[in-house]
């Protein structure tokens, strides 16, 4: 059975990706909140699937090293790495707090890059970077968030060129806002119900996951 590792798998799109990929893969659930990961693992196992839950803060390189050793010892290699973990803070640029800027860069940019660099030696087939349409077009009140997503767009495109003659495939996923806990506590989106569900987007990503360079939803 193929092994798929998904970051940010405790809630939102990461959770829904874990559920849909678990239909024919063993899923390695990665996230900061072990309790949430265990709940997703329980759902997968009740549905007859296989999953492993490992807590990890992707902003800490030494934590990534520890988890890499765990995954290597248990599985030797994985087929797919899905970089889904992300965070966003919105509003007028002049009001953005220093700690929020640092968090977005640490999670969205450095976390994705470090996960990829450390795990790439054991990834056999593909890396999927969940980016969002914020990586395609600038948006008001999202300056730093967009900057972080443009960074991962450039990172993904560069890896596509670097690995173009190898078996490893790199896919960049660009999707719009979703009705997920990502927006909890924020007034930026007034009506989440008009957004696509994370389950719907996850299914579209899964269906489109055929080795293409870009998936735009």
Automatic annotation (TrEMBL):
Gene Ontology molecular function: oxidoreductase activity
This protein's UniProt keywords: Oxidoreductase
Keyword ATP-binding found: no
Keyword Oxidoreductase on entry: yes
Family: Belongs to the short-chain dehydrogenases/reductases (SDR) family.
Protein name per the record: SDR family oxidoreductase
């Amino acid at each position: 059975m193929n092994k798929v590792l998904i970051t940010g798998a405790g809630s939102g799109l990461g959770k829904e990706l874990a559920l849909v990929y678990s239909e024919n893969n063993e899923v390695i659930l990665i996230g900061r909140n072990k309790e949430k990961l265990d709940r997703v693992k329980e759902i997968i196992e009740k549905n007859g699937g296989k999953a492993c839950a490992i807590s990890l803060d992707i902003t800490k390189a030494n934590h990534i090293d520890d988890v890499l050793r765990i995954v290597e010892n248990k599985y030797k290699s994985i087929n797919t790495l899905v970089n889904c973990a992300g965070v966003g803070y919105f509003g007028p640029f002049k009001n953005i707090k220093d700690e929020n800027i640092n968090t977005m860069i640490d999670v969205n940019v450095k976390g994705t890059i470090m996960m990829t660099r450390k795990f790439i030696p054991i990834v056999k087939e593909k890396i999927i970077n969940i980016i969002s349409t914020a990586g395609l077009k600038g948006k008001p009140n999202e300056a730093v968030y967009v900057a972080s997503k443009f960074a991962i767009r450039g990172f993904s495109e560069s890896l596509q060129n670097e690995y173009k003659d190898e078996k490893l495939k790199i896919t960049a996923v660009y999707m719009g806002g979703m009705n997920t806990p990502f927006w909890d506590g924020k007034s930026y989106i007034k009506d989440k119900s008009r957004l696509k569900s994370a389950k719907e987007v996850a299914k579209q990503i899964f269906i489109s996951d055929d080795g293409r360079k870009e998936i735009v939803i």
